[in-house]
UniProtKB/TrEMBL annotation:
Keywords: Cell membrane, Glycoprotein, Leucine-rich repeat, Membrane, Receptor, Repeat, Transmembrane, Transmembrane helix. The keyword Membrane applies. The lineage of its organism: Eukaryota, Viridiplantae, Streptophyta, Embryophyta, Tracheophyta. The keyword Glycoprotein applies. It is a single-pass type I membrane protein. It comes from the Eukaryota. One of its GO terms (cellular component) is plasma membrane. This is Uncharacterized protein. Belongs to the RLP family. It holds the Pfam family LRR_6. It is found in: Cell membrane.
Amino acid sequence: MSSVITQSLGNFNDKKFQGRIPKSITKCRHLELLDLGNNRIEDTFPSVLGTLPKLRVLILRVNKLHGSMQSPSTKLSFTKLRILDISNNVLNGNLPSKFFMNLKAMIDVDRDMEYMMMKYYYYDYSARMTWKGFEIELVKILTTITIIDLSGNKFTGKIP
C-alpha cells in the first residue's frame, strides 16, 4: 500500500537562475521541498533556509555556492531535512558538526518508520542526484529515504 504525500514544492531546477537566493523565501513556511539545482546561483550556503519548519528536501547541486558552511544559529535549523544535495559547488572549509547534529529527521529514522506504520509514503516529485558517481533520477521519492551528497566541493578537515 502506498500513499502520496501532498507537499508544498519549490521546483526551480535548471531554470537558469543567477545571483543570490532571496531571503524572502523564508516566508514560505509550508515549503517541504526546495530544488534550486542546476542553476547559476552565486551565494554562500543559505543557512537561513534552516528556519523553514517543514523543509524535508533541499537540492542546491550544480551551482556556484562558495565559502564555508556555518553552524546553524538555532537548534531548530533543518530538523526535518531528509535529503541534502549540495554537490558540485565550490564550498570549502571544515564541515560544522553542529550542522549535522541538527539533522534530527536523518538521525531518528526509527521514529519516522513507526509514524508511517509500515505504509509507503512518497513525494510525487522526481529529482536528479548523483549516487556512487552516477547521475540518477529518483522518481516518487520515499519520505523515509535519507541522502546527503557533499561531493564535488573543496571541503577540508575531518568529516563530523
